[in-house]
Amino acid sequence: AAAGLSYVGGYVINSYKSYDNFLQDKYALLPAVIIICVAVVMFIIGLIGCCATFRESRVGLGLFLAIILVIFIAEVSAFVLAFVYREKVKTDVQSTMHSVFEKYNGKNPESAMVDYLQEQLHCCGVKNYSDWTTTQWFNSTGNNSVPLSCCKQNMKNCTGRLDQPQEL
């Protein structure tokens, strides 16, 4: 389990590099760091449990049980906090994404990140393609279209025009 958690934590940190423009708050990596720390602690606790079982130590097994109970309480607390603050996280991420979409001009690094995100997630805009109508890029192009990264991948002749929403 500790090895699995270590992998997940490392994967999240590695994936963060692709989306760091959307998650401007560096505390977004905190869950991944916590996961890695939990993995290290789990490894140590597992080692204590194995040694206590091998030696048939009542004190060691009692310590192991106490540690497991503390971990269970921490997990329940983390679940409750995640449930309570889920809307705040959602609004913070949407706010940050709207600000990055506002900076879109088709040439800057933020634009490349927006295009990458839309292509990878098969989406268009923060909620849908109509989010683009309020951006500076949409108003400056004057051709009533969204970026080509909004097009469905199987559409060959997609122009991103809003009068053809079935292609987006």
UniProtKB/TrEMBL annotation:
Q: Where are the transmembrane segments?
A: 28-54, 61-85
Where is this chain's protein located in or outside the cell?
Answer: Membrane
What UniProt keywords apply to this chain's record, in alphabetical order?
Answer: Membrane, Transmembrane, Transmembrane helix
Name the InterPro entries for this protein. Answer: Tetraspanin/Peripherin, Tetraspanin_EC2_sf
Q: What is its main location?
A: membrane
Q: Its membrane topology, per UniProt?
A: Multi-pass membrane protein
Task: Give Gene Ontology CC terms.
Answer: plasma membrane
Q: Does the keyword Membrane apply?
A: yes
Q: Which domain of life is it from?
A: Eukaryota
Q: Which PANTHER family match?
A: TETRASPANIN, TETRASPANIN-36
Q: Which named protein is this?
A: TSN36 protein
| Species per Swiss-Prot/TrEMBL record | Chauna torquata (Southern screamer)
- Which gene is annotated as encoding this protein in its UniProt record? Tspan36_1
